[in-house]
Design a protein that fits this description.
It is built from 21 helices and two strands. By secondary structure, it is mainly α. Strands 1-2 form a two-stranded antiparallel sheet. Helix 1 crosses helix 15, helix 2 packs parallel to helix 19 and helix 6 packs across helix 20.
Length: 472
């Protein structure tokens, strides 16, 4: 395959989108409807500025140079195996994590407050008893995760049977999300689909010589953008409804005497109703903010939750930066590693040294609040080291984009999707290290891609050492 250096417009595409997203979340943090009481905004702002400059710089280093890669020949096998595993694992996962079965999804959707309460109860009751299902999910998830990206990237060669498997895999994630009363799985699917389509568009630009500006004015792009906006609107509407359901203010609850009003709007009219619902800890939504003033009550609550999701991590980071550094010896960046050590050694002292645990003494628990990815990384290497780690991840992100597009390497594309997901969650937490599922998937696909890349480079140096690569 002929070497290729990406044009500037293609090279900058993912970075531009993520930087716009970061700046939007920071604008919402500093000027949004939640007035976060940051202890000292100056070091926080300087740290975030340095982190963004580092991410941009090292991404560009990674996305520069010549692309490498070969076609992934086994994509159909991965789709079939991953889809079947995803469908099969849904049933025990639904039972062990939500105490439900997939066919109960409609009933679960009708009362997300009860579903989420049942999830918390189930997790508390079965703590330490989900080892087998957790291992099974971790081992199978690398294949399950790859199904949707591989289906989109190879859409021209997909049969209707393969498309059914891809759709079933995505639907399994959505069903699991509804059964648990959580939103992460749905947003993960949206993020992965968007990242895969981005690779697909960039490959088309390389193959045809078209620029991104030309792509933007194509009829198919306009139709796709409209479809995306419709899907996003539906997702946000469902998000608002599910968030309102989670408060538990329903006619049924009011009739049973468990709530003082039949709706969220009714509760807000009671004394102290606003402070009871529209606050994160003691930080309350500003009712006169332009994002809040002109929308109905369910959407006000959705604004609260969405603003909180996108910005609370920066507040947690500001609190963490007031603490001293005590290393967690390479385990503190991942709560699942810390919990595993605690169970094996019956000792939680290492994790308790970290910034994220010590936030609990400041009223900001790592079990329910976010603090961005940086304190998680800093648990092991301090905040200067956290910037170094995020720069390394940005370099890998840029290099995976280069190989995914210029080298037409689906393995690199899967890594790109994973790292794109990681960077989307930077304002929240170290998402891919929260569970063994994501951790093993990232490490596994990164290793597969980098080892394959090394072999590709070796073949370029010594073509007679192994069979010639197939070309695209």
């Amino acid at each position: 395959m002929k070497s290729l250096i990406l044009r500037v417009d293609l090279r900058l595409l993912p970075l531009t989108l993520v930087l716009i997203y970061f700046l939007a979340t920071l604008t919402l943090f500093f000027f949004g409807p939640l007035d976060w009481p940051v202890p000292d905004p100056v070091p926080l702002s300087l740290f975030l500025a340095l982190a963004l400059v580092g991410i941009a710089t090292f991404y560009l280093f990674g996305a520069g140079g010549e692309a490498s890669g070969t076609p992934f020949l086994y994509w159909k096998v991965v789709i079939v195996v991953g889809a079947l595993l995803g469908i099969a694992i849904l049933f025990p996962s639904a039972y062990f994590y939500a105490n439900k079965m997939p066919w109960q999804v409609i009933d679960a959707f009708r009362d997300q407050n009860a579903v989420y309460a049942a999830l918390q109860k189930k997790l508390a009751e079965t703590a330490g008893e989900r080892t087998v299902i957790s291992i099974i999910r971790a081992v199978t998830f690398p294949a399950i995760f790859a199904v949707v990206p591989l289906g989109i990237l190879n859409w021209r060669m997909m049969t209707w049977k393969l498309w059914l498997l891809v759709l079933a895999t995505a639907l399994s994630s959505v069903i699991f999300s509804v059964l648990r009363g959580t939103d992460r799985e749905v947003f993960d699917v949206i993020i992965i689909v968007c990242a895969s389509i981005m690779v697909l568009i960039a490959r088309w630009c390389v193959a045809t010589g078209a620029t991104l500006s030309k792509v933007l004015v194509r009829r198919s792009t306009v139709i796709g953008a409209i479809a995306f906006l419709v899907v996003a609107g539906i997702a946000l509407s469902l998000f608002a409804d599910r968030r309102a359901q989670r408060t538990g203010y329903t006619p049924e609850a009011y009739a049973n005497g468990t709530r003082d009003a039949p709706s969220l709007a009714g509760h807000l009219n009671t004394p102290g109703g606003w402070n009871d619902v529209m606050c994160i800890r003691e930080i309350c939504l500003d009712p006169d903010h332009p994002l809040v003033r002109y929308v109905d009550v369910p959407k006000k609550y959705a604004v609260l939750m969405l603003t909180s999701y996108l910005t609370q991590g920066y507040y947690g980071l500001s609190l963490a930066m007031t603490q001293d550094f005590h290393s967690t010896l390479g385990l503190g960046h991942s709560p699942v590693l810390a919990r595993t050590l605690e169970r094996l050694m019956h000792d939680n002292s290492i994790y308790e040294r970290g910034y994220t645990f010590r936030l609990r003494s400041l009223g900001w628990s790592d079990e329910s609040q976010w603090a961005t990815i940086f304190p998680w990384l800093a648990n092991d290497v301090g905040f200067p080291g956290a910037i170094a780690v995020i720069c390394l991840l940005a370099f890998l992100w840029g290099r995976s984009w280069l190989d995914a597009v210029g080298g037409h390497d689906d393995r690199a594309a899967i890594v790109f999707c994973l790292l794109f997901q990681l960077f989307v969650y930077v304002p929240a937490n170290n998402q891919l290290a929260q569970t063994f599922d994501g951790y093993l998937t990232l490490v596994g696909w990164c290793a597969y891609w980098l080892v394959s890349r090394a072999f590709d480079k070796q073949r370029e140096i010594n073509p007679t050492a192994s069979p010639a690569r197939s070309s695209v």
